[in-house]
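PT: before anyone asks, these are the final sequences, not the draft ones from last week. 589 residues across everything. Please model them as a single complex and drop the result in this thread when it's through.
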Amino acid sequence: MSIDTETAAKVAKLARIKVDPADLPALAGEFNTILGFIDQLNEVDVTGIEPMVSVTPMRLKRRTDTVTDGDRQKAVLANAPDAREGFFAVPKVVE
Amino acid sequence: MSSLNTLTIAAARKGLRAGDFTATELTEACLSAIDGAGTLNAFVHHTAESARVQAGAADKRLQDSAEAPAMCGIPLGIKDLFCTKGVPSQAGSAILNGFRPEYESTVTQNLFDAGAVMLGKLNMDEFAMGSSNETSVYGNVINPWKAADGTDLTPGGSSGGSAAAVAADLCLAATGTDTGGSIRQPAAFTGITGLKPTYGRCSRWGIVAFASSLDQAGPMTRDVRDAAIMLGAMCGHDPKDSTSVDLPVPDFEAALTGDIRGKTIGIPREYRMDGMPEEIEKLWSDGTAMLKDAGAKIADITLPHTKYALPAYYVIAPAEASSNLARYDGVRFGHRAKLAPGDGITEMYEKTRAEGFGPEVQRRVMVGTYVLSAGFYDAYYNRARKVRALIKRDFDTVFADGIDAILTPATPSAAFPLGIKHDDPVQMYLNDVFTVPVNLAGLPGVAVPTGLDHQGMPLGLQLIGRPWEEGDLLNVAFSLERAARFVAKPAKWW
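LR: through. Structure below.
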């Protein structure tokens, strides 16, 4: 499976990372090196094997469905690049 | 008292309790050592003032109570991956520029509750993605061990700052994290001890996430006893991390009897790689002989899927990273790109992430995005998770057959020069060939320094234990350490 520049551009778009079109061929080349390495996995017989979900055979703990934290607007917004009037501010999302 | 910074945790504990010196004196000795070691670039955020306050509080606690915890008054370096309240926590990335957490990670909180002192934050590969500490926004860390010809060497990664700081006596010990070898490989490259506990032993809460099913925090220390002491203070059940195990914390130090008679040590044949340097072969067979002399039985074992651990890791880790790192979007914390007129929210995401993430992080996020994308999820991600199940089954089988611990080399080479492995990302990935299977199987692993190569650079062996049996594992490591008598230190040039 070989990745062309068009696929590399699509992946960059999905990952929300701006890549200069001039850099796409090099990026596609790196993907191909890494995916070529990963392709060794096709040598393994995985018939009847369940994909691993959790490395420790442990039942997730349950707790009562109650509020345990909250009311920390100031702390939540403290690191925001742009916070106004108690909200995160972002560029216009819909026209 | 200028050499207080060279003490082990155990020696410092003894001296503090006996009143030979104070936590304040101990902290000052480390702060002076840090001031003189800027060249190494290990400490990247300094917290001298709060360290002095913590040391003062530790002194009071030591005075007031004969029962002060083992870590009381011990000065530590903290990897930049740990969120520390009010102190910059950037995971070595530009995208977290200016981020000061409003909360404390569970592991650092546990250490502070035990009276430990934080000297500052330690350099690391960006988001813990790297094996040479060359992907950090703060620049390279330099290994305190120098090559014979004076070349600057990598301390390894991603916990390169932690390893360099402990090896150079800037702190008594440091926290590290290990997703594919990030504690054990740098420990081996700098002649110190590094322990990755069983997955779930230490809470991941407040540690910047890379690959959540693999990440685990652990101690990086001068010796095995210190690793046992520090692990005891770091770990414990945490309701804020659903994968944190609810098991009692044993007294790991009490397990260090040095008696390993009757234990069976497995030597996996698949770890004998083509082209492995003879020095590593010899280190490994010497270590095997040491454990045999100490009364252990040696057994040849097979872990047939070892070869597929790295390719499986390079699907699973980037997949989880692409999901975890989606949160860096320029909205809630960290860097936001300057926008051009007319730019909308998508441009903000794309520009922010292009500016904020370095090349290796971008590469892994995109590989992860690809292997999770429609049409490839089964072929890559699900297949990798099946292979992961087989890798774990290999280990389960040998442990069920009566193997107590497994001995392997920690790394395929000694520390290499900074700047040499950039062209091919896969070449860099091969550094972790002996450590990655342990993360995939969720097992505890420890790197112990046991020898020097022909250039006088440290080399380490790795011991792998049964899940939740860090005490037994550390006891085997303790026995190996005693037999190897590794005492070499880097000559001070910085």
